[in-house]
Amino acid sequence: MTIRVLTGITTTGTPHLGNYAGAIRPAVRASEQPGVDAFFFLADYHALIKCDDPARVARSRLEIAATWLAVGLDPERVTFYRQSDIPETTELCWFLTCVTAKGLMNRAHAYKAAVDQNEAKGVEPDDGVTMGLFSYPVLMAADILLFNAHKVPVGRDQVQHLEMARDIAQRFNHLYQGDFFVLPEVQVEEEVATLPGLDGRKMSKSYNNTIPLFEGGAKALRGAISRIVTDSRQPGEPKDAEASHLFTLYRAFAQPDEVAAFRRELETGLGWGDAKQILGDRLERDIAPMREKYNELMANPARIEDILQAGASKARKLASPLMARLRDAVGLRTLSAGPAAGKGAGKKAAKDARFVSFRDTDGSFRFRLLAADGEELLLSDSHADPKAAGALMRRLQQADVQLREQADGVEILLEGAVVARGPGQADKVRQALDSLRQE
Ligand code: TRP
After folding, report:
1. What positions carry the motif 'KMSKS' region (predicted)?
2. Mean pLDDT, all residues of the chain
């Protein structure tokens, strides 16, 4: 079985070395494993929650896309897209918003932290809190559930959001009586490096202690390394490798034998200046070739745009049929489909075989026949006119429909012409159509 792995990257900053070692590199490697169907996206709707500087959002999307491609993400293999190119995300977000308890959102860490800060400042608890921030976890749940991801690799700070996504998914499945959503599992990489920044605290933009990955080129990388804090031991004095941030950074990039050699040198008196030189050389070895690709990509944004558009269309092929199913489940159905599709409240309708109409990615109108358990029985041809699709749907509920069994499924004919096809057995299709006729 293939495992669908999905993760999003908020586009508010420029990736630094800590992002690379802690998130980007392991994600790209994981995407290369057999049996993994990886989805990576730029969470640019999320960016709007944190950042109202359009130039920064725009620049960050470009830089982050270029970074992921430069470090070796294969967009042929991975579905790589921008959240904002998938309008189904916002539609699903609304459906989920309508089943999410406000109380659940009250407990979200990010929101609670904002309230705590406000209380400490003595201002209104919700001062400066937007609905975007408050419902952040719902949007994130939509990202994940839209593609029925099994595993979601994230940082520890996101674990609660995954719990919320499961919670919301379960609630929707339960309310509308279907297995619409897979319950996603969080994946926190335990052994992945959390890199120390220049001052030894966790490398983070908010501490202003980052080492750039590509920005500023080799010079900026060396410059940052020269500013890494060390203790005051002189050349010749033994150093405590484990306690040294330089060593931790080196270890995140080097092979075990290189690491052992570096440790020995530090312990036998290597000076900090030389140690920084060695660290810089080692980082350059990995980073220089990627930087070259990055610069190439940054000089050619149209190419990145094409790659992202192709990714979006791949993603929407999955998102749009799911949304069609969800629209039907919640009762947002076409009125022209006749009594079957329009009948019954959620729970009842979900137990019967049913037609579900949808708009395909090319803009045409189609429908599916689903069995009571949600199995797809038929897929109609495309119709430019939604009324034609609706009329055909009604027509299929009359008794004179012809079914033809094929080696690989079943075809439905009207007046000798095939109008819909399905992967399964004719019996099941016949039964489902019969059950619709009896209603
Ligand atoms: N909230 C995530 C972060 O800040 C980014 C994100 C948005 C995400 N949507 C997601 C991560 C969906 C995983 C899955 O890191």
Report:
1. 202-206
2. 92
Positive/negative CA dihedral, 329, 334, 338, 343: positive
Are both 55 and 149 inside the same structural domain?
yes
The number of folded domains in the chain is 3
DSSP tag of 22: I
Evaluate: CB of 278 within 6 angstroms of ligand 1: no
Helices (H) and strands (E) in the chain — how many of each? Answer: 19, 11
The answer to whether residues 26 and 166 belong to one domain is yes
What is residue 342's predicted lDDT score, i.e. its pLDDT? 45
Residues 279 and 304 in one domain: no
* pLDDT confidence tier of residue 349, bands split at 50, 70 and 90: very low
Residues 6+ apart with CB under 8 A from 207: 197, 199, 201
Fill in the DSSP letter of residue 413.
E
In a domain, 347, yes or no: no
- Check whether residue 70 and residue 154 sit in a common domain: yes
Do residues 173 and 30 both lie within one domain?
yes
Binding residues for L-tryptophan: 143
- Residue 310 lies in domain: 3-194+300-326
- Contacts of 378-385 with C-beta under 8 Å, sequence gap 24+, read 378/410, 378/412, 378/420, 378/421, 378/422, 378/429, 379/420, 379/421, 379/422, 380/419, 380/420, 381/418, 381/419, 381/420
Q: Give binding residues as ranges.
A: 10-12, 18-19, 143, 155-157, 195, 202-206
- Ligand 1 centroid vs 159 CA: distance in angstroms? 10
The answer to which of 57-61, 129-133, 164-168, 188-192 has the lowest mean pLDDT is 188-192
Same domain, 291 and 320: no
For residue 46 and ligand 1, the question of a CB distance below 6 A is answered with yes
Q: Report how far ligand 1's centroid is from the alpha carbon of 357 (Å).
A: 31
Q: Residue 398: is its pLDDT beyond 90? A: no
- Report if residue 337 sits inside a domain: no
Q: Is 56 in the same domain as 135?
A: yes
Is it the case that residue 437 has pLDDT exceeding 90? no
Hey, which of 7, 51, 84, 145 would you mutate to test ligand 1's pocket, going by the most ligand atoms within 8 Å of its Cβ? 7
